[in-house]
């Protein structure tokens, strides 16, 4: 299969417009409806990977109206007529996985293939790839309104290859990718890629005082001090393309100008996603310890979002449990302009108020590892073998301050 130009049919949820308080592709899910169930199965029948279907619904009905309202605060996010459009799909190869990032100047969205699964044909044989789409094409598909059309998916060939990319963020007008590394001799690293000239790609960090990181996962920029914060965990090891870990599972901060790197948080099983509130006062970190790749699941391990205070000196303090994820694990995480917290998880994307209350969900019926806000009212969602486009009222936290050049 060639990835340089994949033309795939698009699908758009369509239906007759119904005048009602609830938008046509939304539905209310009342927590009171499942506070008491007629039968609560044992853990051998229903566990942390099981998909919960609320009473009175089916998997098909949940997908037919994928914007699930758990609290009225979600109405302000979805707006009057949210839509969910399927832009592309593959049969088995999880090419729509992580490192989802929007580059405003070129109006393009980058994303990376999953490095671990057998279906990807990666592992020690070859590195996962970075690809991109242009939102101008996506907007035309949505505007047609009848599901016809296509989108081109282009492989990004950079001057220096990003080895097993997994996380990405805007940084000073360019994009920083985290690479998980490969085998014993290709160390995990951070790469700076210029979207206007992919040949201009450089490694900006690849060790902690001479020691290899385990598998760099995600990265975000603190809008207050403009430093890069990244997570590192044993993901390559549990997916059999990296050696045994030699560092604790931690969150680090990196000053690009001085080269100084230091740990700011530990005590995780599998530290994963990281992001900041719009004002930079809080950091959010996901721990996906419930899932250990080829080693299987431990349902007593965290499937948890933690919140930290970000001190004036840029360090973390006051760790709090922000939310426990109900289906599989919380992975990629981002905030909107109002400070609401969005996280990719086992059946789509959960949306929380800043106090940790689950207010809504984009229900995909399958895992979304990551996603990206792409301007006002738009979001691109990766779901392994499917690529989705959301049009609603939400707007991501401002990324222009994260391109600081002073």
TrEMBL record:
Residue ranges of domain SMP-30/Gluconolactonase/LRE-like region in the record: 183-377
Q: List, alphabetically, the SUPFAM superfamilies matched.
A: Calcium-dependent phosphotriesterase
Query: Gene3D superfamilies in the record, alphabetically?
Result: TolB, C-terminal domain
Identify this protein by name.
Gluconolactonase
High-level lineage: Eukaryota, Fungi, Dikarya, Basidiomycota, Agaricomycotina
């Amino acid at each position: 299969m060639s990835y340089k130009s994949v033309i795939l049919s698009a699908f758009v949820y369509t239906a007759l417009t119904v005048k009602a308080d609830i938008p046509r592709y939304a539905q209310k899910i009342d927590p009171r409806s499942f506070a008491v169930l007629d039968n609560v199965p044992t853990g051998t029948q229903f566990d942390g990977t099981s998909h919960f279907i609320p009473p009175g619904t089916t998997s098909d009905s949940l997908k037919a109206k994928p914007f699930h309202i758990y609290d009225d605060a979600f109405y302000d996010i979805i707006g009057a007529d949210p839509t969910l459009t399927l832009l592309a799909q593959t049969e088995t190869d999880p090419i729509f996985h992580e490192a989802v990032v929007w580059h405003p100047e070129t109006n393009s969205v980058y994303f990376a293939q999953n490095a671990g699964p057998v279906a990807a044909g990666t592992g020690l044989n070859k590195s996962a790839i970075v690809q991109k789409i242009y939102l101008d094409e996506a907007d035309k598909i949505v505007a047609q309104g009848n599901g016809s059309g296509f989108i081109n998916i282009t492989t990004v060939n950079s001057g220096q290859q990003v080895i097993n990319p997994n996380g990405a963020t805007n940084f000073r007008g360019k994009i920083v990718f985290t690479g998980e590394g490969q085998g014993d001799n290709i160390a995990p690293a951070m790469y700076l890629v210029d979207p206007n000239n992919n040949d201009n790609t450089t490694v900006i960090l690849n060790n902690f005082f001479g020691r290899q990181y385990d598998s760099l996962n995600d990265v975000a920029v603190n809008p207050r001090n403009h430093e890069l914060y990244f997570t590192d965990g044993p993901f390559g090891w549990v997916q059999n393309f990296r050696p045994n870990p030699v560092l604790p599972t931690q969150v680090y901060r990196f000053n690009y100008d001085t080269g100084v790197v230091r740990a700011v948080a530990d005590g995780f099983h599998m530290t994963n996603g990281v992001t900041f509130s719009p004002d930079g006062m809080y950091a959010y970190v996901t721990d996906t310890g419930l899932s250990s790749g080829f080693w299987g699941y431990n349902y007593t391990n965290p499937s948890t979002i933690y919140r930290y205070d970000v001190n004036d000196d840029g360090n973390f303090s006051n760790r709090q449990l922000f939310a426990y994820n109900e289906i599989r694990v919380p992975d990629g995480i981002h905030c909107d302009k109002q400070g609401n917290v969005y996280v990719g998880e086992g059946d789509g994307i959960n949306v929380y108020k800043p106090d940790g209350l689950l207010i809504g969900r984009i229900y995909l019926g399958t895992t979304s590892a990551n996603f990206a806000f792409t301007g006002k009212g738009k979001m691109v969602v990766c779901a392994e073998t499917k690529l989705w486009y959301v049009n609603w009222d939400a707007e991501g936290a401002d990324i222009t301050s994260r391109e600081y050049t002073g």
